[in-house]
Each structure stands twice: as structure tokens, then as C-alpha cells.
């Protein structure tokens, strides 16, 4: 068993990370941080998940959110999709393994993956609405959010949701407030089968290796770790029984990448546009210095008055 | 509002606006802007911790209840967060979905907080004291047992059965409580019985 983290203290504790550890800030820049925090990660072992949704309940409770009671859509997914309140949701897939003809119930905990190369942050036009810390946490700053929804387009996993109440985008914070005092996320603490574990990314990879070895010994020869390189790896990783085909896990993308449109629009186009604007300003200034203002000569003034039918002076 | 606006003045205003936003886009605008706080302050700081056992099932998971308000200072205390107790040998900090959502059960308006009785013919429950409730339960049980107790079956074998009353007992009890409950109920002859000792 993974050793449980100690209970949180109620004594005032200084946060172990904060604004000084920002490495990226949407539509703006941050000074290079003085230190590099140890990258943290949450490891979700799909093979150990029993689909009890304790993580969902703990997430709602810790974040002071309550999901409105909905209606059953015929499957176990409840709610049927992520919402501004439900920052995580279990996705259930019934899959018949073509090799064994066994019905496998694949249960994936969906939520923000905390990409090392976050598409939401790159797409975001609001300065400081999305930030990334050097420990890997990607967080939304709702005060700065303008509710445009670009983060949804930018996200390769389709995670953020816009609230109809305050028109701002919401997603999992990896419980940044808990991590800041040395705790794990609320979902991780609640998980009764330890399908969710939390620690440094290196430790999580080691733990995953042991799990994968175990799964392989049980006949899951394609078991593996999901840490997609297309987004430079994620800080929420999965252990999958069938890592060769992640799409069977409720459409987990096999090779997630930030949309080309976002990359071009927020990359080349943005800098080209800024260069054009700066060029125009410089051109205007130079033109003024060289040619001077466009004055109307008395002769032209006279002609204009004549054309307008006024009395010539 | 009517305003005299010449074409020249309009062009000047529009240009100034464009120049301003351009400067902003080029990154001169936020030198003074302070970073908004993204990380929520840890909400358990300076709160009262109370250890307890989850009320739901017979597994008996350890929980910690966090509350605001100091009872010693005469303030009203209110539980605002419950999570698993990592030091508890049963659950090592984990909880099931019901346990993880215990807070809403604590604050549920429909939660039973004291003995209530619905009298024969009445359509609503009324609050009664523990004294009244226990006396009434004991009285009714005694009457029922006196009337329906089966000491011997048709073959004359002593069976000491009391089949007309059942007993449903709590789960989150200690071994000693469960043992005492079992002894009381079985020695009275009751067969319909469910509590933690069955698990």
C-alpha cells in the first residue's frame, strides 16, 4: 500500500509555493522564478478504480461546490459531463476485449490533466487568468477570467467549463490550497482503493512502474503509463491496462496536442500582428519627423470655400 | 446625449484609443498590475478538530470533523468540513462517497436529531424527550412480549420466541456495545435482529 500522507495541521502553515513560483501567465509574462519546485503529480490507476465516486464527493465537499441534482441518462456517469461545479467526473466504458471476449468495465476519472504545455493557458487572452507553477499545477485565476471560452478550445482534453452564474471558466485546481501546505488533493485522500496517489512526479512514475509490472504479470501485456509527450507530459497521469489504445477509455486522446489553430493564432499571428502595430507606430513617427503635418495651404482653403458655395474672401 | 463631435475630433479620439490598446498589447500596460491571488487560503487553519467514527456502515471509518467557533468562548460551533483520519487503522484517511459527503448529512434538514413519535391516527411526528421515548418503547415492548411470547412450540419443546417485534441497531458501535445489544435482544427472545454484530 502507498503510505498515506499525514492528516493536515490546523496550525497556520506558510504555503510552500505561491506567486513567486509562476513559470507561465496567460497573455503576459512573469519574471523567471528564483527556484524550481519539485514537479508533483497525481497518478490515477484505472485498473484499481472501483467507480465509487468518493473522489467526486470529496472534490465537491472540499471546494465548497454542490452539483445540482440531475437526471439519469442511462449510464453510471453522474453527472453525465464535467460541469463548472463537478471538476472531476467518472467516465464508465463497457468494452469487450477482442482477444479474450471478456467484458471489461473501464472507469476513468476525468478532469484537468495539468499539462506541462497547457493549451488553455496558451489560448487564454486575459492577462493572468491562467497561471502555471513550477511544480506543474495549472490554475485559473477567476478574478482575471473574462469568460471567453478560449481555454476550452485550447484544451486537448476538453476540460474547462464556463459557469452560467458568473460566466467564468472552472476546472480542477489539483487542490493547490492543499498542496501548498504539503497535503494531497481531496480526491486522492478520499480514494478507498488508492487508485489515486499523489507525490513527486518521479515517485509517481516509480509507483506506476510497479503497478504496470503487476498488471503485465496478470496478462495485461499492453499495460502502461499515460503521460502524453504531445503536451510535454502531464501532472495527472493514468495507469492504463490497455495503454496502446487510450481512446477506449471514454475517448482519452491517443496523442493529445494543442490545436494548430491555437498554436498559430497565439504564436506566429500574435507576434506578426504586434510587429505590424509597432511598425506602424514607428512609421508614423518617422513620417511626422520627415514630412511634418499635413497643412492646408491658403490657396486650397480658398478653393474649398468656393466649391462649397460660400462667399470668397 | 447630444454632443458636438467634428470629424477631426472623432479621428483624434479613435487614434488615441487605438494607440492606447496597442501599447497595452505590446506589454507596457501591466507594469503596475499586482498578481491576483490564485491559491485559496488553506481553509482548515485555526479550526477545531474533532475525531469521530463515520456514522454510516459497519466498517467504522475514522473521520476528523473540522469546525468554526470556539465552544469554550461561548460561540456557536459549526462543522464545515469532514475528511478521513489518516491515523485510523480502518481507513487510513480514505472514505467512501457517502463518507466523503458526510458534511451534507450533518447539515441535512431532514436529519433526525431527537426522539420523535407519530401517535396513532396522527399524520405528523412530534418531538418527545428521551425519558418519554424510552418509557414508551419499554412499555410497548413489554406489552407486546407478554401478549405474543411463545415459550413452547406445538411439540412442547421450549423455544422462548418473540416473533412480533424486531430490533434494528446501530452500526457505528464498539464491540462492547454490540455485545450488550446482542445479549439483551436475544435473551428477550427476539429473532428479527440486525446490527453490527451480524457483520
Describe this structure in words.
The complex is a heterodimer of chains A (313) and B (199). Chain A is an alpha+beta fold and 313 residues long. Chain A folds into 2 domains: 19-244 and 257-265, Alpha-Beta Plaits; 267-307. In chain A, 27% of the residues lie in helices and 16% in strands. Chain A is built from 9 helices and 11 strands. In chain A, strands 9-2-11-10 form a 4-stranded mixed sheet. Chain A starts with 21 loop residues before the first strand and ends in a 6-residue tail after the last helix. In chain B, 15% of the residues are buried. Chain B contains 5 helices and 9 strands. The model of chain B is unreliable at 29-33 (pLDDT under 50). At the A-B interface, helix 1, helix 4, helix 5 and helix 8 of A face helix 1, strand 3 and helix 2 of B.
Short note summarizing the structure:
Chain A has 313 residues and is α+β, with helices and mostly antiparallel strands.
What is the top-level CATH class of the largest domain in chain B? Answer: Mainly Beta
Secondary-structure-based class of chain A equals: alpha+beta
Largest interface: A-B, 55 and 44 residues
Q: What is the straight-line distance between the termini of chain B?
A: 80 Å
The structure class of chain B reads alpha+beta
Biggest β-sheet: strands ordered side by side in the sheet of chain A: 9-2-11-10
| CATH third-level topology of the largest domain in chain A | Alpha-Beta Plaits
Number of domains of chain A: 2
Poorly predicted runs of chain A are: none
What average pLDDT do the residues of chain B reach? Answer: 87
Low-confidence stretches of chain B: 29-33
What spatial form of chain B do the alpha-carbon principal axes imply? elongated
Strand content range of chain B: 15-25%
Helicity of chain B, as a percent range? 25-40%
Rg of chain B, rounded, reads 33 Å
Compute the number of strand runs of chain A. 11
At the first level of CATH, the class of the largest domain in chain A is Alpha Beta
Secondary-structure element sequence of chain A? EEHEEHEEHEEHHEHEEHHH
Amino acid at each position: 500500500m502507498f503510505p498515506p500522507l499525514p492528516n493536515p495541521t490546523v496550525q497556520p502553515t506558510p504555503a510552500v509555493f505561491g506567486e513567486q513560483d509562476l513559470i507561465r501567465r496567460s497573455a503576459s509574462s512573469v519574471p523567471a522564478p528564483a527556484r524550481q519546485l519539485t514537479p508533483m503529480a497525481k497518478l490515477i490507476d484505472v485498473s484499481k478504480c472501483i467507480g465509487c465516486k468518493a473522489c467526486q464527493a470529496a472534490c465537491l465537499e472540499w471546494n465548497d461546490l454542490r452539483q445540482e441534482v440531475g437526471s439519469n441518462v442511462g449510464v453510471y456517469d453522474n453527472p453525465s459531463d464535467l460541469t463548472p461545479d463537478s471538476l472531476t467526473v467518472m467516465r464508465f466504458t463497457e468494452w469487450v476485449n477482442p482477444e479474450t471476449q471478456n467484458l471489461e468495465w473501464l472507469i476513468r476519472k476525468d478532469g484537468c490533466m495539468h499539462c506541462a504545455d497547457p493549451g488553455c493557458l496558451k489560448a487564454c487572452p486575459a492577462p493572468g487568468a491562467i497561471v502555471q507553477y513550477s511544480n506543474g499545477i495549472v490554475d485559473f485565476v477567476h478574478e482575471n477570467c473574462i469568460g471567453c471560452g478560449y481555454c476550452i478550445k485550447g484544451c486537448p482534453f476538453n476540460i474547462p467549463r464556463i459557469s452560467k452564474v458568473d460566466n467564468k471558466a472552472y476546472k480542477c485546481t489539483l487542490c493547490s490550497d492543499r498542496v501548498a501546505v504539503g497535503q494531497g488533493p481531496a480526491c486522492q485522500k478520499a480514494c478507498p482503493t488508492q487508485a489515486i496517489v499523489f507525490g513527486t512526479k518521479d515517485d509517481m512514475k516509480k509507483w506506476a512502474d510497479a503497478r504496470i509490472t503487476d498488471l503485465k504479470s496478470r496478462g495485461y501485456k499492453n499495460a502502461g503509463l499515460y503521460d502524453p509527450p504531445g503536451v510535454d507530459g502531464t501532472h495527472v497521469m493514468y495507469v492504463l491496462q490497455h495503454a496502446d489504445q487510450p481512446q477506449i477509455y471514454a475517448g482519452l486522446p491517443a496523442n493529445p496536442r494543442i490545436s494548430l489553430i491555437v498554436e498559430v493564432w497565439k504564436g506566429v499571428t500574435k507576434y506578426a500582428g504586434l510587429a505590424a502595430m509597432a511598425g506602424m507606430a514607428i512609421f508614423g513617427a518617422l513620417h511626422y519627423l520627415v514630412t511634418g503635418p499635413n497643412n492646408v495651404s491658403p490657396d486650397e482653403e480658398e478653393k474649398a470655400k468656393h466649391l462649397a458655395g460660400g462667399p470668397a474672401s | 446625449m447630444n454632443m458636438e463631435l467634428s470629424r477631426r475630433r472623432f479621428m483624434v479620439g479613435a487614434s488615441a484609443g487605438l494607440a492606447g490598446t496597442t501599447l497595452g498589447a505590446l506589454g507596457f500596460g501591466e507594469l503596475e498590475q499586482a498578481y491576483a491571488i490564485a491559491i485559496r487560503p488553506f481553509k482548515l487553519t485555526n479550526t477545531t478538530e474533532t475525531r469521530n467514527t463515520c456514522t454510516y456502515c459497519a466498517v467504522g471509518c475514522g473521520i476528523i470533523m473540522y469546525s468554526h467557533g470556539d465552544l469554550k468562548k461561548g460561540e456557536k460551533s459549526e462543522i464545515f468540513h469532514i475528511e478521513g483520519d489518516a491515523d485510523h487503522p480502518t481507513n487510513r484517511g480514505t472514505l467512501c462517497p457517502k463518507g466523503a459527503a458526510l458534511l451534507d448529512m450533518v447539515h441535512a434538514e431532514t436529519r433526525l436529531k431527537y426522539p420523535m413519535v407519530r401517535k396513532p391516527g396522527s399524520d405528523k411526528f412530534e418531538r418527545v424527550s428521551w425519558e418519554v421515548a424510552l418509557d414508551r418503547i419499554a412499555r410497548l415492548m413489554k406489552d407486546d412480549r407478554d401478549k405474543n411470547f411463545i415459550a413452547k412450540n406445538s411439540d412442547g419443546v421450549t423455544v422462548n420466541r418473540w416473533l412480533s417485534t424486531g430490533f434494528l441497531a446501530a452500526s457505528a458501535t464498539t464491540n462492547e456495545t454490540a455485545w450488550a445489544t446482542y445479549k439483551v435482544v436475544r435473551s428477550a427472545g427476539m429473532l428479527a435482529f440486525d446490527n453490527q454484530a451480524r457483520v
